[in-house]
Amino acid sequence: MIGYCQSQGMTPSGGRVQPPEGNNKLKATFHRNLSATGGNAWSFVANGKATQAATIYAEGVTVKQPSGKKFDACLAGGKRGVFAWFKSNDVRPNENPPMPDNAVRIRFNPKNGDKFFHANGGRVDAIGAVWCLENGECWGVI
User: Fold this and answer.
1) Three-class SS of residue 118?
2) In angstroms, rounded to a whole number, what is the distance separating the alpha carbons of residues 12 and 140?
3) How far apart are CA 46 and CA 62, in angstroms?
4) What is the pLDDT of residues 15-61, one digit of tens each?
5) What digits encode the pLDDT tens for the residues 48-102?
6) What residues pair up with 50 in beta bridges, in sequence order?
7) CB hemisphere CA count around 103 (13 angstroms)
8) CA 124, CA 136: separation in Å to the nearest integer?
């Protein structure tokens, strides 16, 4: 589970977030959203507009590790908040290219005491390519 706290492809105000013409890539931040609607599992912010997607594929991803008052409150048993996310200049909402065999599960669940994103027991701060799936799982090539 990735840090959480309109319908697919729509901003809260109803406008579509579109990548540059002829290009499916967006510069965006994104995170797992446990309150997403319409079958979506992920939220992302591009061009200053927030929206949701069922899946996200991204390359050259950096990780904003959890911190702050919302994170501390969540660790203490309080409600979730958005305090950790991914960032990339190459975010492709609702794209799901084939995942290679060397992809590993990226995990973060503060309700289980996790204090950072990790894979195979090691902290993850950057991911070469990431697949954020409809079921909320996140896999990456580190």
Assistant:
1) strand
2) 29
3) 16
4) 334 444 445 678 899 988 888 899 999 999 998 999 999 999 999 99
5) 999 999 999 999 999 987 767 766 776 666 666 555 789 999 999 999 999 999 9
6) 45
7) 19
8) 18
Contact at 8 Å (CB) between 42 and 34?
no
**Phi and psi at residue 27, to the nearest 5°:** -90, 120
- Report the C-alpha gap between 100 and 98 in whole angstroms: 6
Using CB atoms within 10 A of its CB, is residue 123 exposed (0-12), middle (13-18) or buried (19+)?
Answer: exposed
Residue of 56, 55, 45, 80 whose CA lies nearest to 66: 80
Token pair 């706290």 is found at 5
Q: Where are the beta strands (DSSP E) in 10-119?
A: 26-32, 42-46, 49-53, 56-64, 85-93, 104-106, 118-119
Report which residue type is found at 31. Answer: H
Q: How far apart are CA 72 and CA 12, in angstroms?
A: 28
Cβ atoms of 127 and 140 closer than 8 Å = yes
CA 77/CA 87 separation, integer angstroms? 27
pLDDT score recorded for residue 4: 28
